[in-house]
Every structure is written in C-alpha cells, then in structure tokens.
C-alpha cells in the first residue's frame, strides 16, 4: 500500500513552490513531476498525486471562496502559504474525493497531520477549525460510521504500538580544526538531523550508526546520548503510534556527504561550520539537541 501521507506531502511541497513563486497554474504540473522524480522516485503513487494536484488546482477559485467563508477573519492572501495550501488539499478531499477512498474524517485528519509537520505553532488548530466548520456545514458525513481508524482512536496512550527511531548530531573537524555539523534538509525548508528506524535487537548505538550512515553516506561513531523525543503519528493500518526517537552525538570524518535518495521528503545534505548553525531554520524539538551537542563539544 502506498504511503498516502507522503504522497500528500509531495503535493503540498509542489503547491508551496508554485504559490510562493506566484507562478501561473500551467507550471504547477512541471513542478510536481520534478519533485516526484527527485524526492520520491520509488513511491509508486503517481496517479493519486497527479489527480489530486490537477483537480485541486482546477477548483482552486471555489476552494478559496469556501476558505474565506469558513475563516472570515483571514483573507486568503493573509493566510500563510503552507496553511492555505494545506486547506486547499483538505477541502478538496473533504468535498470532492470519493468518500469510499478518502472518508471525510480521513481528509480532515490528514490535513491536520500535514499542519503539525510543516505548519507553524498554531497551524493544526487553525486547519482543524476551518475544516471542522465546513464538515459541520455539509452534515458531518460518516460521523456514525465505524471503521478501523475510529476504533484506533480509542486505544489508550499506554497501549499504542511503539516505533523506535534513532538519529544523531553528526560532527567532524575539517583540515583547519574547525567544527562542522551535518544536517539534512527536508522538502519544506527545515534543516534537521539524520535519523531512521532502529530495531531493539541491534541496540541504540549500533542502530543509529547504521541509519545515519545510510542517510549521509559516511561511517559514524556514536558517542554521548543527547536525549529523546516522542510524538504520536497516525498509520492507516495500525492506527495511532507512539514514535520514540533517541538521539546521540556522532563523530565522523570531514568528507563528502552523499544523501540517500530513497529517503522520502529530503532534498539536501550539507556541512555547516559552528558559526552558521544559529542562522539555520531548525525544528523546535531539534534545537535543544543541537545546543546540547555544541555545549558538549566546545566545553571539552
């Protein structure tokens, strides 16, 4: 089964670029095809994404009018580029998609998840409010239906399946002895840390060394533990999951970085000297880990 959440993320990335650059609609398809081929060549969900972006853009004027009615205090051009395109995706799927394929609540939940991942601090609440208002206006379709997804919602936090991931703040000293740090860049403009799924059998350090090497193309050696993050994610087959990420400091040689092309959602990988890190657009939950790593390295 294709990863529809990642598919929607690629569509959102393409809409963001198209909207940000104020391109004509005729250029949106070319942007999408380029992004699909570059960032998710093996995803295998091209038809779904192509239909979504083409149909959405054909109904953009109608969708924008609905947004303005549902959020009268927010003219469409005053809504952030990310938020308004998440709303366009969510509204299109809520109003025009085949409900057997995309139930109304799935359309809303997927939009909220996009907002949590790529929007600002209050984006998910804003998206939920606007889509929830439209959902009520159209009679709350599917409200009483019983599905796997609905049943999963009632699973207590303690009983949610756990997926374990590992990541690292990767550092190296260049020929001049200066500290440099390796960051990966996602398709929505944030620099973040390389990470991936690890198994209990291989242990934290071994697992992190494996997934980080795969993502950046260099052998790393895990050192001090930096901390843990946990977040809840929705899976179409498993329901809600607790994703636990453990982070370590990891040393490597200052060499050419090679981004793993199979890592969906990433589009760049670079070294940054210590003095440039403060200027990077980092996720809020990553910043404390990077700060701790820098403190450890500079206090030695």
How much helix is in the residues? 40-55%
Q: What global shape is seen?
A: globular
Q: In angstroms, what separates the terminal alpha carbons? A: 49 Å
Major beta sheet summary = 7 strands, mixed
CATH H-tier superfamily of the largest domain: NusB-like
Tell me what portion of residues adopts beta-strand conformation: 15-25%
| Topology-level CATH name of the largest domain | N-utilizing Substance Protein B Homolog, Chain A
Structure description:
- Helix 1 (4-20) packs across helix 2 and helix 2 (28-39) packs antiparallel against helix 3.
- The longest helix has 17 residues, at 4-20.
- The chain folds into two domains: 4-145, N-utilizing Substance Protein B Homolog, Chain A; 159-298, Alpha-Beta Complex (Nucleoside Triphosphate Pyrophosphohydrolase).
- It contains ten helices and seven strands.
- 43% of the residues lie in helices and 20% in strands.
- Strands 1, 2, 3, 4, 5, 6 and 7 form a seven-stranded mixed beta sheet that branches.
- A hairpin with a 3-residue loop joins strand 5 and strand 6 (239-251).
- By secondary structure, it is α+β, with helices and mostly antiparallel strands.
């Amino acid at each position: 089964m294709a990863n529809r959440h990642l598919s929607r993320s690629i569509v959102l990335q393409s809409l963001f670029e198209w909207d940000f650059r104020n391109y004509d609609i005729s250029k949106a398809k070319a942007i999408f095809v380029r992004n699909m081929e570059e960032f998710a060549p093996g995803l295998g969900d091209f038809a779904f994404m192509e239909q979504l972006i083409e149909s959405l853009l054909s109904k953009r004027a109608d969708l924008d009018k609905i947004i303005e009615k549902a959020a009268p205090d927010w003219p469409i051009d005053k809504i952030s580029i990310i938020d308004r395109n998440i709303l366009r995706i969510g509204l299109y799927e809520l109003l025009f998609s085949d409900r057997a394929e995309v139930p109304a609540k799935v359309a809303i939940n997927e939009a909220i998840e996009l907002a949590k991942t790529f929007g600002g601090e209050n984006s998910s609440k804003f998206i939920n409010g606007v889509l929830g208002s439209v959902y009520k206006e159209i009679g709350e379709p599917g409200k009483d239906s019983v599905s796997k997804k609905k049943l999963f919602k009632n699973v207590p936090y303690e009983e949610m399946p756990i997926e374990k991931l590992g990541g690292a703040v990767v550092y190296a000293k260049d020929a001049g002895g200066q500290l440099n740090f390796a960051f990966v860049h996602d398709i929505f403009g944030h620099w973040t840390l390389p990470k991936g799924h690890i198994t209990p059998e291989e242990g934290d350090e071994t697992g992190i060394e494996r997934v980080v090497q795969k993502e950046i193309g260099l052998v790393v050696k895990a050192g001090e533990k930096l901390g843990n993050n946990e977040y809840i994610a929705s899976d179409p087959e498993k329901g809600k999951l607790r994703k636990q990420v453990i982070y370590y400091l990891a040393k490597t040689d200052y060499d050419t970085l090679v981004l793993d092309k199979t890592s969906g959602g990433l589009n760049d990988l670079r070294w940054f000297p210590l003095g440039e890190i403060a200027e990077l657009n980092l996720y809020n939950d990553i910043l404390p880990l990077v700060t701790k790593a820098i403190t450890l390295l500079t206090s030695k």
